């Protein structure tokens, strides 16, 4: 997500500096759309990784407490 926002933000900033268009929404809207698309594409994987991590941590709690 962050890399997507960084790349799109850099591209828009470069476009704005070349064309001298200084509009705030011109940089915000494409970044929001790109991050939303990245979230739609990788969201299922991220949730699956978070659930697996949480389950593993909860399964290890007894061994960490010495039980």
UniProtKB/TrEMBL annotation:
Q: How does it sit in the membrane?
A: Multi-pass membrane protein
Presence of keyword Membrane? yes
* Cellular location(s): Cell membrane
Name the source's superkingdom.
Bacteria
- Assigned keywords, A-Z: Cell membrane, Membrane, Transmembrane, Transmembrane helix
The reply to whether Membrane figures as a keyword in the UniProt entry is yes
Predominant location of this chain? membrane
Q: Which InterPro entries match?
A: Bac_export_3
Please give the family membership noted in the entry: Belongs to the FliQ/MopD/SpaQ family.
The protein, known as = Flagellar biosynthetic protein FliQ
Organism per entry:
Demequina litorisediminis
């Amino acid at each position: 997500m962050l890399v997507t926002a960084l790349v799109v933000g850099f591209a828009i900033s470069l476009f704005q500096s070349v064309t001298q268009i200084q509009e705030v929404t011109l940089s915000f809207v494409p970044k929001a759309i790109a991050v939303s698309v990245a979230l739609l594409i990788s969201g299922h994987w991220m949730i699956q990784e978070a659930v697996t991590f949480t389950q593993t941590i909860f399964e290890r709690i007894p061994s960490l407490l010495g039980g």
